[in-house]
Amino acid sequence: MKIRNLSEQNSVLHQFMSELRAVDVQTDRMRFRKNIERIGTLLAFEISKSLEYVPNTVLTPLGEKHSFRLAKPVVIASILRAGIPLHAGLLDVFDQAESGFISAYRAYSEDHGSFEIKVEYQAIPDLNNKILILADPMLATGRSLLACCEKLLEEMKPAELHIAAVIAAPEGIDYLQKHLPENTTLWIGEIDEALNAQNYIVPGLGDAGDLAFGPKL
Fold first, then answer.
1. What is the pLDDT of residue 112?
2. Which whole-number Å values give the CA distances from 80 to 56, 111, 120, 171, 175, in the listed order?
3. CA 90, CA 68: separation in Å to the nearest integer?
4. Residue 23 carries which DSSP code?
5. According to the model, what pLDDT value does residue 105 have?
6. pTM of the shown model
7. 43 near 78, Cβ under 8 Å?
8. Which listed residue, of 46, 142, 148, 213, carries a Cα 20 to 30 Å from 186's Cα?
9. What is the pLDDT of residue 119?
């Protein structure tokens, strides 16, 4: 698996990320969602540089222009619910992409000492021979992301698999490297220090879904 960490270069990404993490800014849900959306746009632009293009001729009011277009269609699939703002940012760049959604959550044991990942809902278009971008803001253990990948790839085979995340933990990256195909590319805003005892990213930013949409029961 190839890893592309956008924070290794100077860009406005650092400003968006700082605001996402700051507790005094997080209270503004609209700004939190917008910053995730903006990071999605930056991730999408970087992903676009790696894709294949074919010649394309367009007619202008004054003549013809030889240009290029994407060689294969794109599908953006997001993990609910935290992936929705990230999905919007990716869709700003890949504006002709098809969209898919899949749910995954941690089902904890009664003593909260362990959990399993449950995937219960999916609304996904045909992925065969297309560019699949799977979006989830927080890559913690990697287990929910892998479960969604395995579910999506059970009966369909995309031409390429790209994963877009805002923040990742080293443990989650290592887990995906062991289980995903070698031709997968992981695009990350920033890589944090580690997971804590509860398997949350540190320093992280908290619960991205709750911060974007409000606490859940």
1. 62
2. 36, 25, 11, 22, 21
3. 20
4. H
5. 72
6. 0.92
7. no
8. 213
9. 82
Judge whether 73 and 24 are in contact, CB under 8 Å.
Answer: no
The label of the residue with tokens 């362990």 reads 114
Residue with tokens 């007619």: 59
Quick one: which of 34, 131, 125, 26 has its CA closest to 84?
Answer: 34
Q: How far, in Å, CA of 1 to CA of 144, rounded?
A: 17
The pLDDT tens digits for 155-205 are 899 999 999 999 999 999 999 999 998 889 999 999 999 999 888 999 999
- The per-residue pLDDT for 113 is 63
Q: Which residues touch 30 (CB under 8 Å, ≥6 apart)?
A: none
Give the single-character DSSP code of 25.
H
2: which 2 tokens?
A: 């190839």
| N residues, the chain | 217
CA angle (160, 161, 167) in 5-degree steps: 150
The CA distance from 135 to 77, in Å, is 6
Q: Are 211 and 23 in contact (CB under 8 A)?
A: no
**Quick one: DSSP state of residue 52?**
-
Residues of the chain with pLDDT under 70: 107-115
Q: What number of H helices and E strands is found in the chain? A: 7, 14
d(CA 104, CA 107): 9
Check residue 212 and give its pLDDT. Answer: 95
